[in-house]
């Protein structure tokens, strides 16, 4: 997709084994009428598994994992399928094991560790097993060269378990959410931050804890409005006393956040009173038991 228009499609798949130690892959690039534009064959070690892929408007990036050697390999290709750069790195045993579980059934998996940065490169979200789990970020440019690295920046006296999720990126900034907790499967003492980085330098622009005096909030996504120069964070919210793992959320929230991280305005809409009353449903059961919410895109009206 370029400038909100579909320009084409691509498919990447294994063709066959190429000897004892290599496999043959094929990358097919189609135009928006499904006419084949390019077909490229690639030979890779048979130990590699395709983990995920992404396209940033200028380059493709394919991530392979070697479970035995515990290596991630990033292959950056141009629009014609020509390889323009590679980047490899060693990963921890525990991280390799988690990727092995994802690729065991050879389905179309997405590990969540590769995000496209518009026309500039790709963000790697990695994990390190150290006093719990720690998040690591690496920015790889369009030639496959690492530009910068960053960690969560969260200080902890004891064990902590960190997770990160990609939220938004353009050619200037990249936004992620960082969550840290004392225990792996508990929300007690959990803290979530919205962090925005400079794409060129990796410098942190602002860090905003995702909390509210009355509610617990959990972001689902971030969008940016050039007209207002603001970020919009949206997701679900709970009463402060609720257990976010076990209890249903109370509704949907949205916050307008300035470039310095301050909240300019916000809205909290309940499922039961505000949102459900606006929707027409033929559900035979209770509405709350028969609904899933997916937000695909946010448009300013």
Features:
mainly beta; eight-stranded mixed β-sheet; four-stranded antiparallel β-sheet; single chain; 2 helices; 301 residues
How would you describe the overall organization of this protein?
The chain is mainly β and 301 residues long. It is built from two helices and 19 strands. The strands form four sheets. Strands 8, 9, 10, 11, 12, 13, 14 and 15 form an eight-stranded mixed sheet that branches. The longest helix is centred in the N-terminal third of the chain and has 11 residues. The protein is 5% helix and 52% strand.
SSE layout and pairing:
Layout: E1 8-17, E2 22-31, E3 36-45, E4 48-55, E5 60-66, E6 71-77, E7 83-90, H1 93-103, E8 114-117, E9 121-128, E10 132-141, E11 146-151, E12 160-169, E13 173-181, E14 191-198, E15 204-209, E16 215-225, E17 230-239, E18 251-257, E19 263-270, H2 271-275
Parallel strand pairs: 10-12
Antiparallel strand pairs: 1-2, 2-3, 4-5, 5-6, 6-7, 8-9, 9-10, 10-11, 12-13, 13-14, 14-15, 16-17, 17-18, 18-19
